């Protein structure tokens, strides 16, 4: 993987690095905070062509969404396409998974407005910057079943039963439309102010794609619960019908099992702990 010091010297030769902190890492990137003001994200992709293309697309997408998004998003200071590095001024606030707000339902109008606007982005303006992601519903279910087999021993028997009923059921029909999606809108990518309960930014657009808009709403349900989900769709430009809601719940259920498996197998235990804590509402019979 790329050495962050060499990247900084190349693109910001007169910038004095006083402090350098690793903020964390996921499947795709390692993220650093420099001097408490500059975020530098380094791709973990080993394939040079794929790494360059992903970085180019994300930098271009962030530029294209400037002025379109209703919430702050990163504004690149530099993008090293070859090395897979992207730098931007740190947005204020902390991720919601690290700093839960007292009344998350108050976030719903802002989230509904943000997703309405994002999902209305003209596709001809972004289709060279994001790719279609037509992952079949059966593949989602199969991935979730594989993840469950890896982690079932970490889940109490009463919770296993509804999970196993879900995995044995038929997935919902495929979506009829696609839009621009963030495609990874978990609470780790939603920032909130340190002294307010207001959303201050949306980060990590690496996985953005042309996909079912219910994927974004699904992670609101997964991470913030059914009440926040219902309030968010009440503020969404095109309220989902029963089929849309069924897909959102389906994606939430699949993705929470994959999050738990990622946490257990990678050592990022906070992902597993959060996912297990949310299983009751995600697999409720009333969801």
From TrEMBL:
Keywords: Transferase. Residues 20-237 form the Aminoglycoside phosphotransferase domain. It holds the Pfam family APH. The keyword Transferase applies. GO terms for molecular function: transferase activity. The keyword Thylakoid does not apply. PANTHER family: AMINOGLYCOSIDE PHOSPHOTRANSFERASE-RELATED-RELATED. This is Aminoglycoside phosphotransferase family protein. It comes from Phytoactinopolyspora alkaliphila.
């Amino acid at each position: 993987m790329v050495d962050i010091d060499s990247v900084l010297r190349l693109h910001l030769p007169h910038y004095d690095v006083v402090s350098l902190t690793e903020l964390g890492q996921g499947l795709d990137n390692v993220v650093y905070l420099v001097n408490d003001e500059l975020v530098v994200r380094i791709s973990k992709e080993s394939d040079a062509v794929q790494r360059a293309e992903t970085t180019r697309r994300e930098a271009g997408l962030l530029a294209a969404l400037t002025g379109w998004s209703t919430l702050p998003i990163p504004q690149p200071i530099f993008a090293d396409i070859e090395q897979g590095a992207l730098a931007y001024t740190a947005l204020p606030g902390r991720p919601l998974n690290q700093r839960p707000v007292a009344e998350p339902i108050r976030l719903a109008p802002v989230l509904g407005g943000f997703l309405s606007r994002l999902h209305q982005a003209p596709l001809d303006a972004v289709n060279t910057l994001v790719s279609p992601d037509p992952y079949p519903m059966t593949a989602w279910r199969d991935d979730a079943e594989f993840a469950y087999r890896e982690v079932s021993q970490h889940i109490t028997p009463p919770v296993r039963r509804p999970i196993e009923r879900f995995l044995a059921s038929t997935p919902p029909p495929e979506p009829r439309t696609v839009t621009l999606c963030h495609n990874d809108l978990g609470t780790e990518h939603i920032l909130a102010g340190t002294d307010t309960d207001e959303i201050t930014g949306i980060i990590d657009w690496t996985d953005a794609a042309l996909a079912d808009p219910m994927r974004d709403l699904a992670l609101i349900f997964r991470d913030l619960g059914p009440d926040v989900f219902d309030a968010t769709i009440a503020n969404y430009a095109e309220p989902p019908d029963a089929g849309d809601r069924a897909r959102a719940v389906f994606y939430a259920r699949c993705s929470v099992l994959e999050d738990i498996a990622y946490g257990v197998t990678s050592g990022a235990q906070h992902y597993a702990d959060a996912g297990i804590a949310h299983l009751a509402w995600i697999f409720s019979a009333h969801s």
